[in-house]
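tool_log.txt
---
The assistant was asked to compare two proteins side by side. It first ran the structure predictor on the initial sequence, then on the second. Raw inputs and outputs are pasted verbatim so the downstream comparison step can read them without reformatting.
(1)
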Amino acid sequence: MKNTLHILLFIMLASTLSVSAEKLLIFRQGSANFEEVVKAVKAEIDGELDIVDHVLSKDAKYKEFVDKTRAEKPDLLLLLDNKAVNFAKKFNQEKDDYAKNLKGVAAMGLNLRKELEGNKNICAVEYEVPAYTMITGFRYMVKTDIKNVLVFYRKSEQQAVIDNATKLLSKEGITLKAMNAEEYGESDEQVNFFLQRNVMREMYHSDTDLVWVISDSVLLNNDNFAEVWVNAARKNKKPFIAGIKTFASPDMQFCAYAASPNHTDLGSQVAEMIFAVIDGSTPEEIGVEYILSVEKNANLKKVASNKLELNEERMQDVKVLGK
């Protein structure tokens, strides 16, 4: 009789723990990079939270987000891309207390520092590798001195990024020449027109040592990517660097170097942020963190065509592509 009572108590306790476990609802895209981050998050959480993983299609509407959130009633959201972040921000504007107070952790979205400016419900890990990390990493890798870096940016979206990069790089003796691609206007067509007129022209300035390519869907789009960016990189001997690994692919012959997020480590960093919120830290206190771990890739063919020489003793953490 006593053993039976113990078993019943154990079952009741287990049932109570299961019901009371806090729930994490993930909204994400379905590509490999997102899956890698989610896999790492799940490995770190390891049964501490109930996890519901929901893939949003590219044409997903806000109603899908609302219906899933209302049905699952999560304690916390994990928002992996700008669409999910924007849906969560809109959800926080709903009239009921649950929606107003639902917290989230965000990653894998572009320009999250600006997107979440003034937001008290969502903290984040910035997806872009900082310019300082990327540029000084490239300079450390090559024997050519890097003193002047050219970048095209959108003032309406990236001014704070440029200001911060300019300040930090100046301490390293590096000058950032930042050209506002919205000089003719902020529409996609006006940005494209500015880039078509100025990217190749700026390549021929003798004081340009390096071109930093910002990850931005307006600066880099189907209408200008091959014609403007890749064409300029192939015709000119100035090296290009970016925060997207595929841009350093030997087949593309675009960038000599890329410093991109390590998605497994990003998942671990996101998991730490999730635990911080669950343990009582507010998203407002946490804010937006810089990404901590990057993958470095050098395109050997492009390095050679740019007439650069590598510091072989400094290549231990750099993956060389195109050997």
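(2)
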Amino acid sequence: MLTELEKEQKREAKLKRDIAKFKANIAIPRPGTSGAILQTDIPVLEKHGIELSDILYLTLADLRDNPLNQYPPLSDEELEELTEDIREKGILIALIVKQDGTIVCGHNRKRAGIKAGLVRGPAQQILSALTPELERDIMKSENDRRRGGQWSKEQKEKFIQENFEAEIQTDNRGGDHGNQYTGGKSSVNLGQGETNLARKIEKQSRGRITSGTAKRIIADIRKKTPKKADSGTDRLSEKEKRRAEKLALNIRTWRETKAVFARKMEALDKLEKAALRELKMIGQPHLFGV
């Protein structure tokens, strides 16, 4: 056990070591310091590309749309999706603006941010001189990267059909697009499944096809693709069809409920095993009735 005097001596020794390290650190020659003698040549990086300011938090409503912007805004569905994401996470990628507040990149982020209730948002100002041609090039690079490069609607549809046709056709044949028990509307589970498929498409396309665009293309593909003939259902009476549809809907709901309970049971099993391990460390489990 150290005495108070020994503790004080130990603290003083540590303080002296820290001071020595600090002095050694500031003694290292650095570019731009007067009287510093550089032992090695340190290369000075040349400016490359467009110079941007540090991130500033500007009032979104004060930022002006760019008259040179020829890209169409997001659809209502895509804008709502972006708004929800910003409402949850904020604007993660700064807008690019000119020094007078004119937006070069980020028109949709501004709209969605205001709709999400944000007053200010992250932005970087362009400090380099801009010509209209360079301004358009910046917009093109940004929008092409975010909206799928040069992919046309036909190319996006082809990508989805080649990679996800089986999943789309399964939903199309499954009769999940509404019946008398759902008021002619898709069930909640179907809607979630479609959303998951759209997100899967966005991920596999590496962002070239947004989930909102994927949903619209999926709907178009389903409209163009006739449903396969139902083998045997034409022989059923209307009463039998209604009963079969109801039973099928119940079965799907029960299966999903069982899956939820299975996940919960798995989590409870892990908790039980962890508690048993801790109880064994404390004492004999049988003494506590387990």
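---
observation on (2): The beta strands are 56-59, 95-97, 103-105, 120-125. Residues 31-40, 173-188 have pLDDT under 50 and may be disordered.
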